[in-house]
Amino acid sequence: MRLTKIYTKVGDKGLTFLANGTKVPKYHLRIEAYGTIDELNSFTGLLRDQLHLLEQHKGMPRIGELLQRLRRIQNELFDVGGELATPKESLDLLRQQVVTHESVSLLEKEIDEYNDLLEPLANFILPGGHQANAMAHVVRTVCRRAERAVVAFASEDSVREEVSIYLNRLSDWFFVVSRVISQEAGVPEILWQQKGKNVPKV
Prior knowledge:
The protein is mainly alpha-helical. The chain has one domain: Cobalamin adenosyltransferase-like (Hypothetical Protein Ta1238, Chain: A). The protein is 58% helix and 5% strand. α1 (29-58) runs antiparallel to α2 (61-84), α1 packs antiparallel against α4 (131-154) and α2 (61-84) runs antiparallel to α5 (161-185). The mean pLDDT is 88.
């Protein structure tokens, strides 16, 4: 596929094209869903670049592995966006790349693998302590918003269940990864203090 024309001027009137050429208004729930997936993918790329800098600085094998997994996830998110941009009557599951139950199972396997390396949680965690940790939490929350957008769209149209399940698991994946990042960077996790009690002075 070659992208020979970047602008179409269709958006000037508040419309956009779906993958099959159908025009829809930009406020459509479908557009909100795959637009949020696009945003999620962009933030995931930013997290990946931050981790790449961390790896170059400290040479961490686990971060290198995480970089590869993030690249896979970015491709999967692009697949999700492509699916959501395709009306169900035009979706060809034999030709189009989509996330599957196997994609979800792989995320669950990696979550369990990372969780085994971490101390059990005794309290809620606040984002921060390291820029990459905070960025992982930003990605996690955008992922949750993307999931909500997909669920909202699915209330109006048919969406394969694998899409929302994948996003649900992916947000959990980013939470666990935020903890791995803190561990690898050698920074303490910031624990939530109930009613502000015993909050350490900065």
